[in-house]
Every structure is written in C-alpha cells, then in structure tokens.
Write a structure and sequence with these properties.
Number of helices: 2
Shape: elongated
Structural class: mainly beta
Distance between the termini: 28 Å
Strand order of the largest sheet: 1-2-3-4-5
Largest sheet: 5 strands, antiparallel
Length: 138
C-alpha cells in the first residue's frame, strides 16, 4: 500500500491543507487545520470520481501537558452551547495545558478565536507558512 502526504493552500482561508493520497483505495483527503474545510475524493462510480465536501466552520486544538495534541473540526456553524461544552471540558481535565488550547471559528472569510487565541502562524497564508519550516502544528 502506498501513502503520500503533501500540503497545499486552502481554497477558503488560504491556510495550510494536509493532503493524504492513498493509492490502494484511490482516495485523496484534503483537510485544512485552520478553518476545518475538508474535501474527499474517492474511487470511481459509473459517473466518475466521488467528491464529498464538508464546510470549514472552525477547529479546536487541545494541548496536553505530556506534549500530545488533539485536533478536530466543525461540520456545522459553532453554537454557544458547543463553546460552553468545550470550556467545561478544558477546565475539567487537569492534564490539559489550558494556555495552549483554542477554539477557532471561520466565518465570512475571517478566523476568530472563541476560546484562547489564533496561533500566530495561522494568521499567515500558506505560502508564508511554508517558509517558516519545521512542524508548524507542534
């Protein structure tokens, strides 16, 4: 099985998109860690390539004191209830490094922090981010 991973620019926010290509299944998944947009291209149907898009409404990032990191994206607009649940989750787990966590909303072309702050690198477009080097999501 062959697996390739590349990066490109998000067509919605200009952020960095991780592209995963799995040759065995003829599948390509593109996910933006900035706004949460995801595009999946897979196999072939009688009409051609199967394309599934999921809007970019925002992402969350959780950093743990042991150095691990958790990431997720929203497939619908973020509600006040989801923000409350996220804050409660952060406050209830002592293994979380609160200062490094964020809940980001992408709306009308703008990335806003609902919890925490927008990481400085996320304010740059993909062409600028690639010049920084290293693991930009660590």
């Amino acid at each position: 099985m062959s697996f390739n991973q590349l990066t490109s620019a998000c067509e919605y926010c200009g952020g960095v998109v991780n592209e995963s290509h799995i040759e065995r299944t003829r599948e390509t998944i593109m996910s933006c860690l900035h706004c949460g947009y995801q595009l999946s291209l897979s196999g072939y149907s009688s009409q051609g390539l199967i394309r599934k898009e999921r809007g970019g409404y925002g992402t969350y990032h959780i950093h743990y004191k042991n150095g691990k990191h958790s990431y997720g994206r929203f497939q619908t607009p973020i509600t006040g209830r989801e923000v409350e649940r996220f804050i409660h989750f952060l406050e209830s787990d002592p293994s979380i490094e609160l200062a490094a966590c964020s809940l980001l909303r992408f709306d009308k072309g703008k990335l806003d922090a609902l919890v925490g702050t927008v990481p400085p690198l996320y304010l740059k477009k993909s062409d600028e981010s690639s010049k920084v080097g290293g693991n930009q999501y660590a």
